Amino acid sequence: MYLRRIISPVAAVVAAVVAAGSLSACSSASSTNETAGEDRPIVIGTTDAELPEWQVLEDLAKKEGIEIEMRNFTDYATPNQSLAEGDTDTNKFQHLKFLSEYNVGNGTNLVPVASTQIYPMPLFWKDHDSLEGIEGQQVAIPNDPTNQARSLNLLASQGLLKLKEDDLLTPTPADIDEGASKVSVAPVDAAQTPSAYGEGKPAVITNSFFERANIDPSQAILYDDPDSPGANPEVMFEPYINVWAVQEKDKDNPKVKRLAELYLSDEVKAAVQKTTGGTTIFVDKPQAELQQILDRLEEEASK
Predict the structure, then answer these.
(1) Is the pTM of this model over 0.85?
(2) What is the sign of the dihedral through the CA atoms of 100, 103, 104 and 109?
(3) pLDDT tens-digit profile of 251-271?
(4) Are residues 32 and 101 in the same domain?
Protein backbone atom coordinates (compact mmCIF):
# COMPACT_ATOMS: atom_id res chain seq x y z
CA MET A 1 0.00 0.00 0.00
CA TYR A 2 1.38 3.41 -0.87
CA LEU A 3 0.17 6.96 -0.66
CA ARG A 4 -0.65 8.60 -3.96
CA ARG A 5 0.72 12.11 -4.14
CA ILE A 6 -1.73 14.83 -5.13
CA ILE A 7 -0.53 18.41 -5.00
CA SER A 8 -3.35 20.85 -4.29
CA PRO A 9 -3.72 24.27 -5.97
CA VAL A 10 -3.03 25.87 -2.56
CA ALA A 11 0.29 24.09 -2.31
CA ALA A 12 1.11 25.15 -5.85
CA VAL A 13 0.37 28.78 -4.99
CA VAL A 14 2.55 28.64 -1.86
CA ALA A 15 5.40 27.19 -3.91
CA ALA A 16 4.98 29.90 -6.50
CA VAL A 17 5.10 32.64 -3.84
CA VAL A 18 8.29 31.23 -2.35
CA ALA A 19 9.90 31.14 -5.79
CA ALA A 20 8.61 34.52 -6.90
CA GLY A 21 11.57 36.58 -5.77
CA SER A 22 12.75 37.05 -9.36
CA LEU A 23 11.68 36.70 -12.96
CA SER A 24 13.45 33.34 -13.07
CA ALA A 25 10.69 31.52 -11.22
CA CYS A 26 9.29 29.81 -14.31
CA SER A 27 12.66 28.90 -15.71
CA SER A 28 13.67 27.56 -12.30
CA ALA A 29 10.75 25.14 -12.36
CA SER A 30 11.77 23.95 -15.81
CA SER A 31 15.39 23.59 -14.73
CA THR A 32 14.35 21.55 -11.71
CA ASN A 33 12.45 19.18 -13.95
CA GLU A 34 15.30 18.89 -16.40
CA THR A 35 17.93 18.16 -13.73
CA ALA A 36 15.81 15.79 -11.65
CA GLY A 37 16.94 12.86 -13.77
CA GLU A 38 15.22 10.20 -15.78
CA ASP A 39 13.84 8.52 -12.67
CA ARG A 40 11.82 11.48 -11.43
CA PRO A 41 8.01 11.21 -11.45
CA ILE A 42 5.98 12.33 -14.44
CA VAL A 43 3.92 15.26 -13.14
CA ILE A 44 0.39 15.24 -14.57
CA GLY A 45 -1.99 18.17 -14.39
CA THR A 46 -5.72 17.53 -14.34
CA THR A 47 -9.00 18.77 -12.86
CA ASP A 48 -10.24 15.41 -11.58
CA ALA A 49 -7.37 13.73 -9.75
CA GLU A 50 -9.84 12.25 -7.28
CA LEU A 51 -11.39 9.94 -9.88
CA PRO A 52 -10.54 6.23 -9.46
CA GLU A 53 -9.22 5.78 -13.00
CA TRP A 54 -6.11 7.75 -12.06
CA GLN A 55 -5.25 5.24 -9.34
CA VAL A 56 -5.71 2.40 -11.83
CA LEU A 57 -3.36 4.18 -14.25
CA GLU A 58 -0.83 4.80 -11.51
CA ASP A 59 -0.83 1.14 -10.52
CA LEU A 60 -0.25 0.04 -14.11
CA ALA A 61 2.51 2.62 -14.62
CA LYS A 62 4.28 1.63 -11.40
CA LYS A 63 4.54 -1.95 -12.66
CA GLU A 64 6.55 -0.59 -15.60
CA GLY A 65 8.76 1.59 -13.43
CA ILE A 66 6.98 4.86 -14.21
CA GLU A 67 6.09 6.95 -11.17
CA ILE A 68 3.23 9.43 -11.44
CA GLU A 69 2.74 12.60 -9.44
CA MET A 70 -0.71 14.20 -9.76
CA ARG A 71 -1.29 17.93 -9.62
CA ASN A 72 -4.98 18.82 -9.29
CA PHE A 73 -6.51 22.11 -10.39
CA THR A 74 -9.97 23.51 -9.76
CA ASP A 75 -10.27 25.58 -12.93
CA TYR A 76 -9.66 25.05 -16.63
CA ALA A 77 -7.04 27.75 -17.32
CA THR A 78 -4.36 26.97 -14.73
CA PRO A 79 -3.39 23.46 -15.91
CA ASN A 80 -2.20 24.83 -19.26
CA GLN A 81 -0.41 27.73 -17.60
CA SER A 82 1.37 25.28 -15.33
CA LEU A 83 2.33 23.12 -18.31
CA ALA A 84 3.59 26.09 -20.33
CA GLU A 85 5.74 27.19 -17.37
CA GLY A 86 7.26 23.73 -16.93
CA ASP A 87 5.70 22.97 -13.54
CA THR A 88 3.99 19.89 -14.99
CA ASP A 89 5.15 17.49 -17.69
CA THR A 90 1.78 16.83 -19.28
CA ASN A 91 -1.90 17.34 -18.65
CA LYS A 92 -5.09 15.49 -19.46
CA PHE A 93 -8.26 17.47 -18.93
CA GLN A 94 -9.09 19.21 -22.21
CA HIS A 95 -10.23 18.63 -25.75
CA LEU A 96 -8.58 19.99 -28.87
CA LYS A 97 -11.03 22.89 -29.20
CA PHE A 98 -10.15 24.17 -25.74
CA LEU A 99 -6.44 23.65 -26.36
CA SER A 100 -6.57 25.58 -29.64
CA GLU A 101 -8.31 28.53 -28.03
CA TYR A 102 -5.85 28.55 -25.13
CA ASN A 103 -2.84 28.52 -27.47
CA VAL A 104 -4.22 31.32 -29.63
CA GLY A 105 -5.29 33.42 -26.66
CA ASN A 106 -2.07 33.01 -24.69
CA GLY A 107 0.62 32.72 -27.37
CA THR A 108 1.57 29.20 -26.28
CA ASN A 109 2.42 26.16 -28.38
CA LEU A 110 1.14 23.23 -26.36
CA VAL A 111 0.64 20.15 -28.53
CA PRO A 112 -1.16 16.80 -28.33
CA VAL A 113 0.70 13.56 -27.68
CA ALA A 114 -2.24 11.18 -27.86
CA SER A 115 -6.02 11.05 -27.78
CA THR A 116 -8.11 9.70 -24.93
CA GLN A 117 -11.86 10.03 -25.24
CA ILE A 118 -14.88 12.10 -26.07
CA TYR A 119 -17.36 12.91 -23.36
CA PRO A 120 -20.72 13.31 -25.10
CA MET A 121 -22.51 16.55 -24.20
CA PRO A 122 -25.61 15.65 -22.16
CA LEU A 123 -28.92 17.45 -21.61
CA PHE A 124 -30.63 16.71 -18.30
CA TRP A 125 -34.17 17.57 -17.20
CA LYS A 126 -35.22 16.60 -13.71
CA ASP A 127 -38.09 14.09 -13.55
CA HIS A 128 -38.18 13.77 -17.37
CA ASP A 129 -36.96 10.92 -19.51
CA SER A 130 -37.50 12.45 -22.96
CA LEU A 131 -37.72 15.75 -24.83
CA GLU A 132 -41.50 15.64 -24.73
CA GLY A 133 -42.87 18.94 -23.43
CA ILE A 134 -39.60 20.85 -23.72
CA GLU A 135 -40.92 23.37 -26.25
CA GLY A 136 -41.15 26.79 -24.66
CA GLN A 137 -38.65 25.92 -21.92
CA GLN A 138 -35.51 27.91 -21.13
CA VAL A 139 -32.45 25.65 -21.21
CA ALA A 140 -29.48 26.42 -18.96
CA ILE A 141 -26.17 26.03 -20.81
CA PRO A 142 -22.52 26.63 -19.81
CA ASN A 143 -21.39 30.14 -20.74
CA ASP A 144 -17.73 29.41 -21.58
CA PRO A 145 -17.30 29.77 -25.35
CA THR A 146 -16.46 26.14 -26.11
CA ASN A 147 -19.18 24.42 -24.11
CA GLN A 148 -21.70 27.10 -24.97
CA ALA A 149 -21.11 26.53 -28.68
CA ARG A 150 -21.32 22.78 -28.29
CA SER A 151 -24.57 23.10 -26.33
CA LEU A 152 -26.12 25.27 -29.03
CA ASN A 153 -25.14 22.77 -31.72
CA LEU A 154 -26.61 19.97 -29.59
CA LEU A 155 -29.96 21.75 -29.32
CA ALA A 156 -29.86 22.73 -32.99
CA SER A 157 -29.23 19.11 -34.03
CA GLN A 158 -32.60 18.19 -32.51
CA GLY A 159 -34.45 21.10 -34.11
CA LEU A 160 -34.94 22.80 -30.75
CA LEU A 161 -32.88 25.79 -31.84
CA LYS A 162 -32.59 27.30 -35.29
CA LEU A 163 -29.22 28.86 -36.03
CA LYS A 164 -28.89 31.57 -38.64
CA GLU A 165 -26.14 29.53 -40.34
CA ASP A 166 -25.58 25.77 -40.50
CA ASP A 167 -22.45 23.99 -39.22
CA LEU A 168 -21.09 26.91 -37.21
CA LEU A 169 -18.18 25.59 -35.15
CA THR A 170 -18.53 28.22 -32.41
CA PRO A 171 -22.07 29.63 -32.45
CA THR A 172 -23.14 32.11 -29.78
CA PRO A 173 -26.63 33.11 -28.58
CA ALA A 174 -26.45 35.96 -31.11
CA ASP A 175 -26.54 33.31 -33.87
CA ILE A 176 -29.93 31.97 -32.74
CA ASP A 177 -32.99 32.65 -34.86
CA GLU A 178 -35.28 33.10 -31.87
CA GLY A 179 -38.47 33.28 -33.89
CA ALA A 180 -37.82 29.89 -35.49
CA SER A 181 -36.60 28.19 -32.29
CA LYS A 182 -38.61 25.99 -29.95
CA VAL A 183 -36.61 26.75 -26.79
CA SER A 184 -34.57 29.64 -25.43
CA VAL A 185 -31.24 29.45 -23.62
CA ALA A 186 -29.84 30.89 -20.41
CA PRO A 187 -26.00 30.87 -20.41
CA VAL A 188 -24.63 30.46 -16.87
CA ASP A 189 -21.33 29.48 -15.32
CA ALA A 190 -20.81 25.76 -15.92
CA ALA A 191 -20.67 25.15 -12.17
CA GLN A 192 -24.20 26.58 -11.86
CA THR A 193 -25.85 24.27 -14.39
CA PRO A 194 -26.54 21.55 -11.77
CA SER A 195 -28.35 24.18 -9.69
CA ALA A 196 -30.54 25.05 -12.66
CA TYR A 197 -31.26 21.35 -13.09
CA GLY A 198 -32.18 21.09 -9.42
CA GLU A 199 -34.65 23.96 -9.89
CA GLY A 200 -36.40 21.97 -12.59
CA LYS A 201 -34.93 23.62 -15.69
CA PRO A 202 -33.53 21.61 -18.59
CA ALA A 203 -29.74 21.96 -18.36
CA VAL A 204 -26.68 21.00 -20.35
CA ILE A 205 -24.18 19.79 -17.74
CA THR A 206 -20.61 18.82 -18.58
CA ASN A 207 -18.99 15.68 -17.22
CA SER A 208 -16.91 17.79 -14.81
CA PHE A 209 -20.02 18.72 -12.88
CA PHE A 210 -22.74 16.08 -13.16
CA GLU A 211 -20.55 13.56 -11.33
CA ARG A 212 -19.70 16.06 -8.58
CA ALA A 213 -23.38 16.96 -8.23
CA ASN A 214 -24.32 13.26 -7.93
CA ILE A 215 -26.38 13.41 -11.11
CA ASP A 216 -26.70 9.98 -12.73
CA PRO A 217 -25.35 10.31 -16.31
CA SER A 218 -27.78 7.65 -17.47
CA GLN A 219 -30.62 10.08 -16.71
CA ALA A 220 -29.66 12.39 -19.58
CA ILE A 221 -32.50 12.86 -22.05
CA LEU A 222 -30.16 13.76 -24.91
CA TYR A 223 -26.51 13.39 -25.92
CA ASP A 224 -24.71 14.74 -28.95
CA ASP A 225 -23.86 11.86 -31.25
CA PRO A 226 -21.02 12.19 -33.76
CA ASP A 227 -22.24 8.99 -35.45
CA SER A 228 -25.77 10.24 -36.07
CA PRO A 229 -26.89 10.50 -39.72
CA GLY A 230 -25.79 13.75 -41.28
CA ALA A 231 -23.51 14.73 -38.40
CA ASN A 232 -20.52 16.80 -39.46
CA PRO A 233 -17.45 15.24 -37.77
CA GLU A 234 -15.51 18.50 -38.04
CA VAL A 235 -18.18 20.17 -35.88
CA MET A 236 -19.50 17.41 -33.62
CA PHE A 237 -16.55 15.03 -33.22
CA GLU A 238 -13.01 16.15 -33.95
CA PRO A 239 -12.88 19.38 -31.90
CA TYR A 240 -13.97 17.54 -28.76
CA ILE A 241 -11.40 14.75 -28.71
CA ASN A 242 -9.68 14.90 -25.32
CA VAL A 243 -5.89 14.66 -25.40
CA TRP A 244 -2.68 14.39 -23.45
CA ALA A 245 -0.92 17.73 -23.99
CA VAL A 246 2.74 18.67 -23.60
CA GLN A 247 5.14 21.42 -24.50
CA GLU A 248 6.25 21.11 -28.13
CA LYS A 249 9.76 20.04 -27.07
CA ASP A 250 8.27 17.03 -25.25
CA LYS A 251 6.03 15.76 -28.04
CA ASP A 252 8.08 12.55 -28.32
CA ASN A 253 8.50 11.94 -24.57
CA PRO A 254 8.44 8.12 -24.32
CA LYS A 255 7.07 8.01 -20.77
CA VAL A 256 4.14 10.29 -21.58
CA LYS A 257 3.42 8.23 -24.68
CA ARG A 258 3.46 5.05 -22.63
CA LEU A 259 1.09 6.57 -20.07
CA ALA A 260 -1.24 7.47 -22.93
CA GLU A 261 -1.17 3.86 -24.10
CA LEU A 262 -1.89 2.59 -20.61
CA TYR A 263 -4.80 5.00 -20.30
CA LEU A 264 -6.48 3.14 -23.15
CA SER A 265 -5.98 -0.22 -21.46
CA ASP A 266 -9.01 -2.32 -20.56
CA GLU A 267 -8.44 -1.70 -16.86
CA VAL A 268 -8.50 2.09 -17.12
CA LYS A 269 -11.36 2.08 -19.61
CA ALA A 270 -13.47 0.04 -17.20
CA ALA A 271 -12.79 2.52 -14.39
CA VAL A 272 -13.67 5.47 -16.63
CA GLN A 273 -16.91 3.89 -17.77
CA LYS A 274 -17.88 3.23 -14.17
CA THR A 275 -17.33 6.91 -13.37
CA THR A 276 -19.25 8.16 -16.40
CA GLY A 277 -22.05 5.62 -16.43
CA GLY A 278 -20.83 3.99 -19.62
CA THR A 279 -21.15 7.18 -21.69
CA THR A 280 -17.48 7.68 -22.65
CA ILE A 281 -16.39 7.20 -26.27
CA PHE A 282 -12.71 6.22 -26.40
CA VAL A 283 -10.63 7.54 -29.28
CA ASP A 284 -7.23 6.39 -30.54
CA LYS A 285 -6.07 8.74 -33.31
CA PRO A 286 -2.48 9.12 -34.55
CA GLN A 287 -0.54 12.04 -33.09
CA ALA A 288 0.01 13.58 -36.53
CA GLU A 289 -3.74 13.60 -37.20
CA LEU A 290 -4.44 15.21 -33.84
CA GLN A 291 -1.91 17.92 -34.66
CA GLN A 292 -3.59 18.54 -38.01
CA ILE A 293 -6.94 19.00 -36.27
CA LEU A 294 -5.35 21.34 -33.72
CA ASP A 295 -3.71 23.39 -36.48
CA ARG A 296 -7.06 23.77 -38.24
CA LEU A 297 -8.82 24.79 -35.05
CA GLU A 298 -6.09 27.31 -34.20
CA GLU A 299 -6.39 28.82 -37.67
CA GLU A 300 -10.13 29.21 -37.18
CA ALA A 301 -9.67 30.63 -33.67
CA SER A 302 -7.23 33.22 -35.04
CA LYS A 303 -9.74 34.71 -37.47
Answers:
(1) no
(2) negative
(3) 999 999 999 999 999 999 999
(4) yes
